[in-house]
Each structure stands twice: as C-alpha cells, then as structure tokens.
Write a structure and sequence with these properties.
By secondary structure, this protein is of the alpha/beta class. It is built from eight helices and nine strands. A five-stranded mixed sheet has the order 7-6-5-8-9, covered by helices on one side. Helix 6 links the parallel strand 6 and strand 7. Helix 5 crosses helix 8. The two termini are 29 Å apart.
C-alpha cells in the first residue's frame, strides 16, 4: 500500500479507531518480543550481551496494557492523573549475538515497527510543521493543555529535561489547541508566566488529536529516530519517569548507530 493510500486510510479513521490500531500494533510487537526472548537463541543472546534498547521499563510503562486497549479507552477525566498498575513491566531487547545479523525482526535495535502517525501543527512563529520533519532524531512527543492540572504538574520536569537533553532528543510538546476550550493565547500566557521556553507547537487543526486518537491528556510517546513508536506514558510524568523515557530514546539511538 502506498504512503498516499495509508494517509487516506488514516484520515478515514475515527480517533478511537486510530488509537485501537496503534494499541494493537504495539501489543503485537510486545508479544513478538516476548516470544523471541523465550527461544533458545533469545536466551543465549540475553546471556551473551547486555547492550540494547529498553522497550519498556517499570517507571516508563508500555504504551498500552492488554491486547488492543487504546489510551483513549483507558482514559479518565483529563484532570486526573493516571496510575498504571503493575510493577513488573520490564522488557529488554538485546543486540544480536556475535556473528548474528540484526534483521529488524523480533528483538534488536530495529525491533520497534509501529510507525508514528504523521500530523501537522504550527510552531511558535506560526509556520506549519509535521511530526515527520523530525525523522532522523529521537522524539519525545507530549500532548497537553493549560487547563489540565496533571499537564501543568509535569511541566517543570519537561523544562529541565529539555535543558539537559534537548540537543540529543527533539522535544515536541504539542498544545491541544481547541480541546475543551483551550486557546493558543491561554497556552502562550501559561508558558510565559512560568518561564517555560521549550519548543511548543499548536494543534489548531485537530490533526494530532485525530492521528493519535487523543481524548485525554497528558499523554507522552517515545519515537525513535526511524519514526517508530517504542513506548509511551499516560498521565503526569515526574523527573524519574521522564529520565527513564529519555534513557530509552538515547539508548535506542546509540544501539542503532
């Protein structure tokens, strides 16, 4: 199927259907990871090497919990933080054993094969930007609004993380302009009043919300340099959660090189 046909198909989906599609693909990828790790070759590789990419960790949960359950299905009201249950959500993908080629199947640096859906947004100067413009760099994608309490609570951590890691990771912090009355003016005033100067983008045309099926916030996605989703988090992040997500992204980049 061509990129144009894929784009038309995505546009025809409702946000809920798009969210379910992303969830199902990520769940299938996690199952492939687990199946590969259980094989003799996978176990031998795990003993052989500890380098590789962390696909999910205790603090930074896999995008979805359970087969085919999308974020928007799990979502509570936007002013409530989300508690992701479970303490053993760690899945490591290791680099290939010596002498073995990394084909991109199953475990390995190219194991994540869920493409991030593309969308358009506007930057602080009003220019149109697409998520795909950041391909080639790892991306931390975050959806927020100025009326959202949990969103505001994670902003200091995002600001500090951007100051520390903005050269290695592209921070794409997207304001859900128009969601429940959110306005660009309110978002800009909130950022200015609090001294936040990380890159902020505005979803004026509802393009991001439709592409990712966003119906509650905050949500954060991890996208590797190849443009594939490797994980995500629903709810307000603290410093430790955000640091784990950034480690996943930078580890993925280092392993791919």
């Amino acid at each position: 199927m061509s990129d144009h046909e894929n784009e038309n198909e995505n546009k025809a989906m409702t946000p809920e259907e798009r969210g379910v599609q992303i969830g199902a693909a990520l769940d299938a990828a996690a199952q492939r990871e687990a199946a590969e790790a259980a094989t003799p070759a996978g176990q031998a590789r795990d003993r052989k090497t500890h380098r590789g990419v962390i696909i999910a960790a205790v603090a930074f949960a896999v995008l979805l919990v359970g087969a085919g359950i999308a974020y928007n299905v799990l979502a509570p009201k936007a002013d409530q933080a989300v508690e992701i249950g479970g303490t053993d959500v760690v899945h490591s993908t290791e680099g290939p054993a010596e002498g073995a080629a990394d084909t991109g199947e199953g475990n390995g640096a190219n194991g994540a094969t869920t493409p991030a859906p593309d969308f358009s947004m506007t930057d602080a100067e009003g220019a149109t930007v697409r998520l795909s413009d950041f391909k080639g760099r790892p991306v931390l994608l975050n959806f927020w609004a100025s009326w959202c309490g949990p969103c505001k609570s994670e902003m200091p951590a995002i600001q500090e993380a951007w100051k520390q890691s903005g050269d290695e990771v592209a921070f794409v912090i997207v304001n859900m302009t128009g969601m429940d009355g959110e306005s660009e003016e309110a978002a800009r005033a909130f950022l200015t009043d609090n001294g936040y100067d990380f890159p902020c983008y505005f979803d004026k045309a509802n393009s991001a919300a439709a592409a990712f099926g966003v119906s509650s916030i905050p949500q954060t996605y991890l996208i590797n340099a190849e443009g594939n989703i490797i994980g995500g988090y629903m709810g307000a992040m603290d410093d430790a959660v955000l640091a784990e997500g950034l480690r996943m992204l930078t580890d993925a980049t280092a392993t791919a090189q």
